[in-house]
Amino acid sequence: IFPPGAWPLQGRVSHFFAMSDADDSRFPEWLIAALGIFGVICFVLMLLPQAVLNARRQSTQGMSVGLMVLWHVGSVLATAYYAALPEPALFGAAGISAFCLFCGVVEAQAFAYRGCKPKAPSKTPDAQGQEDAGAASPQTAAPADGLQSSVSVWSLLPNEGSSRAARRRAFVAALLAVTASSALGDLVFFYIFRALPEEASYTLGNVVPSVLFAVGFLPQLREFVVTRDVSGYSFAVTAIDVAGCTANVIILFAPRSSSAAQAIMDSAPFLTIIVMHGALVLTALLVVCR
Fold first, then answer.
1. pLDDT score for 49
2. CB atoms within 10 A of CB 15
3. Burial class (CB in 10 A: 0-12, 13-18, 19+), 193
4. What is the DSSP-derived secondary structure letter of residue 79?
5. Residue among 178, 148, 118 nearest 170 (CA)
6. Is 117 helix (H, G, I), strand (E, B) or coil?
7. What is the pLDDT of residue 164?
8. What is the dihedral sign for C-alpha 34, 36, 41, 47?
9. pLDDT for the residue 130
10. Measured between alpha carbons, how far is 41 from 29 in angstroms, rounded to an integer?
11. pLDDT score recorded for residue 166
12. Left, alpha or beta for 106 (phi > 0: left; psi -120 to 50: alpha)?
């Protein structure tokens, strides 16, 4: 989706966004551009359904925090790498940093909803209000650790008895902390990538993140198997990510000058993600059917 010479990877493959020379494409230029934009949008927004599901359930039970952490670390590395290139790929850095922000949102939800059981799917407003009032009173009357509720540090630590207001405060505090940590990580790795040789920089900033994204599925697979529950994971994440990866694969198969073997090799990161999502869906089906 970039004109010749505009992408600064110098012939290397980006493991996050597919690239194709429009002049050498089997498909119309507008189609390649549309697929590229679609792939980027899918990558950036794929965690939105998970964040919405967590907010509706008021719980992250059934979703693996390990999945989010590994994806978050990978996106921090990739953001710093694209920004540190001799010709900074600001488009790539911006897209991955937006995904990084969504990782932070889901991680902050995991902290804010810590210990919370999933909210019942249907409750009347009066019943929900009584439940919230009942949940808040034990926490204010007798904190589990024996400290006074006025101690601001401990009031940020939520549990099952915390009120909605306390969980909102915990979410905001956690999101700010995670965002600041990500920004600091980006800054540190930016200078590391600037100092590393090109080969080492490419491996750490492009290959390692793609490995982390693939390995990140393993904690979620384990979550399905151990808990025997799939309700905490939004399969809209899978649908969006697979759609985006498919668009990127089509782009990489578009050049006339590229052989099928080369296209498969270039598409390996995206094909791996598709396969891992397939394993996730198959495991979920086995859990549900047993």
1. 97
2. 24
3. buried
4. H
5. 178
6. coil
7. 79
8. positive
9. 52
10. 18
11. 86
12. alpha
> Do 77 and 205 form a contact (C-beta atoms < 8 A)?
yes
156 three-state secondary structure: coil
Model-level pTM?
0.80
In sequence order, what are the residues at sequence separation of 6 or more whose Cβ sits closer than 8 angstroms to the Cβ of residue 19?
1, 2, 7, 9, 36, 251
Distance, in Å, from the CA atom of 56 to the CA atom of 236, rounded to the nearest integer, reads 15
Q: Which two tokens stand for residue 17?
A: 């966004």
For residue range 23-77, list pLDDT tens digits in order. 667 778 888 888 888 988 999 999 999 999 999 999 999 999 999 999 999 999 9
| Structure confidence at residue 158 (pLDDT) | 60
pLDDT of residue 266: 83
In the 8-state DSSP scheme, what is residue 115?
T
Handedness of CA 146, 149, 150, 154 (dihedral sign): positive
Query: For residue 21, what are the β-bridge partners?
Result: none
Question: Which pLDDT score, from 0 to 100, does residue 219 have?
Answer: 96
b/e sequence 233-249, b meaning 16+ C-beta within 10 Å = bbeebbebbbebbbbbb
Q: Which string of DSSP letters, residue by residue, matches 13-69?
A: PPSSS----GGGBSS-HHHHHHHHHHHHHHHHHTTHHHHHHHHHHT--TTS-HHHHH
Cα dihedral angle (23, 24, 27, 30), rounded to 10 degrees?
A: -30
Instruction: Give yes or no for a contact between 66 and 216, defined as CB atoms under 8 angstroms apart.
Output: yes
Burial class (CB in 10 A: 0-12, 13-18, 19+), 117: exposed
Residues of the chain below pLDDT 50: 1-13, 134-155
What's the pLDDT at 18?
A: 57
Residue 266: partners with Cβ closer than 8 Å, 6 or more residues away: 13, 252, 258
Cα–Cα distance, 35 to 275 (Å, whole number): 20
Helix (H, G, I), strand (E, B) or coil at 255: strand
Structure tokens that stand for 87 in this block: 């010709």
